[in-house]
Amino acid sequence: MGQEGSHNEEMDLAQIQELCLVFMKECPSGALHLHEFKRIFGVPSTSAEESLYMETIFRSFDKNKDNTLDFLEYVAALHLILRGNLEDRLKWSFKMYDKDGNGKLDRQEVKRIIRIIYKIKLQRNQVNMSPSEICDRIFELVDVNKDGQITLAEFMEGAQQDEWVMRMLKLDVNATGWVIQNVGRVP
C-alpha cells in the first residue's frame, strides 16, 4: 500500500487563501458549528448514526473544546481528510477509537465505532456481518499478541497488511465533493 502521490504535496498559499474565503463565506462568525459541519459533509438530519459519527469527528478536530472549529482547526481538518498521508489518517482513526485515551483499544471501544459505521454501511447495503463479528475478526487479524487490546502499532500494521481491515478501521469522511463544489465558487 503505497502512499498516494498528491497527498504528500503541501497546500500552497493560493489554496489556503481560497479555503479562507470559503470558510468566511460559510461561517461569517469565524466559527464553524457542528450543524454547519454536518451540512458541509451532507449528513441528513434524520440519520442518527451519521450524525453521531460526524459529531465524533467534529470533536476530534475541536482542539480547544469550545464546540466550534476556528479557521486553523478547519484547515487542519481539511488537510488531514483531503491530503493527509495514510499513516496520519490511521493515527487519527486510532485516536477516534481510543475513547479513554489510554493508547490501547479494547473490544468495547472498537465495537462502539463499528456499530456506528455498521449502521451507516448497512443503510447502503455494504455489510454482511454483525458488528460483533466484525469486531471479532478485527481482533483476530490485528491483535498480534492476543492480549485483548490493540496498540497503535498493531492497528497501523494490521490496517496496512489487510485490505478488509483497512476498510473497517480507517475512518474517512467524504469532503472532496464539498470542497470541489465550493472552492472556486467564491465571489
Description:
The protein is mainly alpha-helical and 187 residues long. It has 2 domains: 12-84 and 174-182, Recoverin, domain 1, CATH 1.10.238; 86-169, Orthogonal Bundle (Recoverin, domain 1), CATH 1.10.238. It is built from 10 helices and 4 strands. Strands 1-2 form a two-stranded antiparallel ribbon. The chain starts with 12 loop residues before the first helix and ends in a 5-residue tail after the last helix.
List low-confidence stretches: 1-9, 182-187
Overall shape = globular
Q: Which fold name is given in CATH as the topology of the largest domain?
A: Recoverin, domain 1
The main β sheet shows up as:
2 strands, antiparallel
What count of domains describes the coordinates? 2
Helix tally equals 10
Secondary structure category: mainly alpha
| CATH class category of the largest domain | Mainly Alpha
Q: What strand line-up does the widest sheet have?
A: 1-2
Distance between the termini: 40 Å
Order of helices and strands: HEHHEHHEHHEHHH
CATH superfamily of the largest domain: EF-hand
